[in-house]
């Protein structure tokens, strides 16, 4: 995602890509790993991996939704 500055403005894509959202979700997962392990301490390693995958997918979708909302609001600001 390359930003281009023109006359004091920064151009950003309207949508956050799936790759960028997933990458950020994985970063956030690592930041919250201790909490995640604590919440899922009785899970087997397979269950833990499934929960991790679901958490990252869900968080990536949330990030994309929040990004769309941000771009929509900022786009309306004069």
Give the gist of this structure.
By secondary structure, the protein is mainly alpha-helical.
What is the helix fraction of residues, given as a range? 55-70%
Radius of gyration: 17 Å
Question: Structural class given helices, strands, pairing?
Answer: mainly alpha
Major beta sheet, strand line-up: 1-2
Q: Tally the structural domains.
A: 1
Oligomer: single chain
Order of helices and strands: EEHHH
Q: What is the approximate shape?
A: elongated
Low-confidence stretches: none
Number of separate helices: 3
How far apart the termini lie comes to 25 Å
User: Strand fraction band?
Assistant: 5-15%
How many runs of DSSP E, i.e. beta strands? 2
What integer is the average pLDDT?
88
Largest sheet, if any? 2 strands, antiparallel
């Amino acid at each position: 995602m390359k930003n281009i500055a023109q006359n004091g403005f920064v151009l950003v894509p309207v949508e956050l890509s799936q790759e960028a959202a997933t990458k950020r979700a994985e970063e956030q997962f690592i930041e919250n790993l201790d909490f995640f392990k604590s919440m899922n301490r009785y899970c087997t390693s397979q269950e833990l991996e499934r929960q991790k995958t679901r958490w990252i997918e869900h968080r990536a979708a949330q990030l994309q939704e929040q990004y769309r909302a941000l771009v929509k609001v900022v786009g309306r600001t004069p």
